Amino acid sequence: MDDFIFVKPVERHPPCEGIEGGCTVCVQALPGAQADHQYVIDLGSRLGLGFQESKRQHCGQKSEYAGFQFDTVQGRLRVLPAKLPKMEECLQEWILSAFTTARALAKIRGKALHFSLGVHHLRVLVPEISLALGTESDPSDKKPEIDWDREVPTTDAMVELGRELLTVISKGAPLGVEMWPLHPSSLYGRFLRGRYGSAPLFVLTWDAGPNGYAGLLRWWGEGRGGSHELKELLLVGTWPADAEVQHQAHREILAACLATESAAQQVDLRNSVVLFRNDAEAAIAALRKGSFQSPVMHRSAMRLNRLLYRLEVVPRMWHVPGLALVAEGIDGASRAGGELGDECVDGVLGPAVGDELWEAINSELRRLGWSATIDLFATASNARCARYCSRTHEAGAERTDAFTMLDWSASDCPVCGLRHAEMVYAYPPTVMARKTVNKAMQDGARMALVVPLAVTAPHWQKLLRFSVVDNADRYLRVRNARASVRHGSPHDPNELAVFVCDFRSAADASDLSSVAGCPGAVARRVRGQCGGGRDEEDRRRLQEELLRLVAEDGPKGVQG
Ligand SMILES: [Zn+2]
Ligand SMILES: [Zn+2]
Questions:
Q1: What percent of the chain shows pLDDT beyond 90?
Q2: What percentage of the chain reaches a pLDDT higher than 70?
Q3: Has residue 375 been placed in a domain?
Q4: Is the per-residue pLDDT at 230 higher than 70?
């Protein structure tokens, strides 16, 4: 045995500033503690134990051990400030030189792993170093096949990693971590009873299905009349077309990213604790500490870790049985439905045109020299443009609900700042066909539109009048809708019609918009996080735009 720490319990009392802050209860305990300390020293010398005077720490409320400070007043564990410069020096040296050795990198990894006990958002970065080294082994493992003195060139990616380690450590080290965190189940129990302390706490329970995910975010907030009430937000979304979702664990961990990104755009998560609940043990483990074994899971873990770091969210990961997710309705919402309201993944997947029909639409557009700038009724999984509006709130979508878009004929470009003409593509739910045609006309938009073939529908004549399709029908007829559409429903019509319309001459006022060759016309427009400065700016701009439109057209001119 070579280290001792003795604990003197202090009478239970409310949070205080400790002995340093002059707390009388804490100060009263000091003489007894000092007497006990002296007794141990005397006993040690009587027994000839040879305690080292130079290493002795005196009675206090902040002890130091193994490079950490144990702050028992604030209940926080922190890396000792004296240990930071050496680590920073190592990282600087690494990113400033063209080469390092495998041994030096392994040393950095060891330090980072140790530091991560007292620094949030650091643990997930550790496997990044292992991936760069190609092994999780350490020189102390004495594996002869590994040459620890070989040179490892410092790539751009490594410089980035070194910088990330530096910023995460320099921001997180002074803050430290909770010394006595509640077990997630106790935290959740207290949360449900509304008694979990003062820090904002969110609970995100999620589940992934073959086509998408569902998550339920819950928190206590102010209700009507200032009461304290449990709020909830259902998050439903589909897998983006390029997502790596072959395995269930890959889906679960990606769902954690997508659900959190969506939540962060709708609710101010900053500076909170988020309790993550999911039934996939492998996903929970990778979210806690990254994954050297699975690069796919590791990428998602890094993605969530970076978001939480930016939001200053402390994550608590909790593995719960799958049956709990079924009972709570989350499992159902991630598939074909359930008790959690109207939305479920399978309900928002379609209808969407198949590749063949999309190609037919595109060849018509190419003939006109047009190409679609935004898909108005889509999800991440079926969007035909990088820019799309979704039915549920998906983080990658430009908007939720195309009818909140003020103008379908043009939009302000976030890249160049100019106003670009839109060429919208729409396959609206059947019940919205008429409303879609009316708004496109009022806005003077250019549009490719998929609608049920219904020659008696009130909007049919309008479509014919403004159609620019070059055939006798003035529309493309889709005779077997079921074969051309994905994720349709039994209520879908048997035949569809594709119109390409130019409503520019139908609108009273047409904007002077430029198309130019600006990539901003078609590139994804990223929504800001809720509570960030950009979000407020967006809201202010929208409000101004709305007021301007009301002033120009009168209230009837504004849609949605
Ligand atoms: Zn005290
Ligand atoms: Zn632009």
A1: 70
A2: 92
A3: yes
A4: yes
Task: Indicate which ligand has the atom closest to the C-alpha of 516.
Answer: 2
Q: How far is CA 365 from CA 356, 425, 462, 498, in A?
A: 14, 11, 19, 11
Spatial distance between the Cα atoms of 279 and 499, rounded to a whole number of angstroms: 46
pLDDT single digits (tens) 516-537 = 678 888 899 988 888 765 555 6
- Measure 15 CA to ligand 1 centroid, in angstroms: 7
Report the candidate in 273, 303, 298 with the shortest Cα–Cα distance to residue 285.
298
Residue 260 has pLDDT above 70, yes or no: yes
Instruction: Using the mean position of ligand 1's atoms as its centre, give its distance from the Cα of residue 190 in Å.
Output: 25
Q: Give 188 Cα–ligand 1 centroid separation in angstroms.
A: 28
How many domains would you assign to the chain?
Answer: 4
pLDDT score recorded for residue 513:
64
Is residue 240 within 8 A of residue 229, CB to CB? The reply is no
Alpha-carbon distance 438 to 290, whole Å? 50
- Centre of ligand 1 to C-alpha 14, Å, is 7
pLDDT at residue 559 greater than cutoff 70: no
CA of 59 to the centre of ligand 1 (A): 14
How much distance in Å is there from the Cα of 133 to the middle of ligand 1? 48
Q: What is the extent of the structural domain holding 314?
A: 184-345
Are residue 402 and residue 465 in the same domain, yes or no? yes
Q: Ligand 2 centroid vs 434 CA: distance in angstroms? A: 31
Length of the chain: 560
